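Quick question, first post here. What does this chain look like in 3D?
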Amino acid sequence: MTPSTRVTVLALVLLAACGGGDDDGGDDDGIDVSSLTYAPCAQASHVGGFDIILGDGFTSVQGQVNDAITPSRVYDTLGESGACAWVKAPSLVCNPACPTNQTCGAGNVCVDAPVAQDVGTVTVAGMLADVSMPPRPPVYYYNFTGTLPHPGFAAGAGMRLDAPDAAPGFSLLGWGIDPLTTTGTTIDVQSGAPLTVTWSAPTMTGPARVEISLNVNGHGLVGSHVDCVVDDTGSFTIPEPMVTSLLADGMSGFPTLTVRRTTTDSVDTAHGCVELDVESAVTLDVIIPGLESCDGDEDCTPPETCQTDLTCG
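> Answer (accepted):
Ran it through. Tokens below.
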């Protein structure tokens, strides 16, 4: 090999190693994600999906596809403000109670309960290890049990999930997000004031968005929560009317706020809409004046005791 040939080969190797991607996603390892946008399923058609999770010290791939929607997860919208929606789970009560193979649906009518489906062997390309997940009867919950490095994908990498043996087969795209972090583990929330949420801004732009969910009644009666979908800039303020309305609707113990960076792709299948999320999330404990959470009476100041909604009272 001549010196000029060695220089040419070296240049090609370096070019291949560096890649030709840009800050907005694109082609990584031959996977073109330039068309990827934030495109979640509508709740009324969402039957499941897959998650590539960038967790605290681990990366995982998992998912499940059902043959029907879950009625209790089709929320009612109580109000909207910009990027935020105040939503509430439906109150579904069937009388008499539904048999074990059915669930209470819209109009308080029993419908067939969702059943997990065999969508064949599912693979994910573009990660730092080969991912293949065979079907596992009878629950058909897909979970990669092999070894993944952490993080399991490169920042800005294009990824593609394939389920060619489903009827019909489908593919979904993902993109290598940065891990999301926050500066603390708690956040103060109070009625009559907006709520500013901050998180680590990404090192590169791309198709990711940030989902913020404020839930102050997770352990009470079926409660409402505020969901916001915002640009990944590192900061967002939930409007005061949304916060005030949410707190007035009821509170229970251990309220939380979850901040999730995600790319979300979806596809319509024979059973309904299926998603792929590439996500990194942090859940903060919410501190509300006058609300004291408890696991037992010992957590409360006498004569107060721990109530069924996990608050002292």
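The helical segments are 3-18, 240-248.
The chain is about 10% helix and 35% strand.
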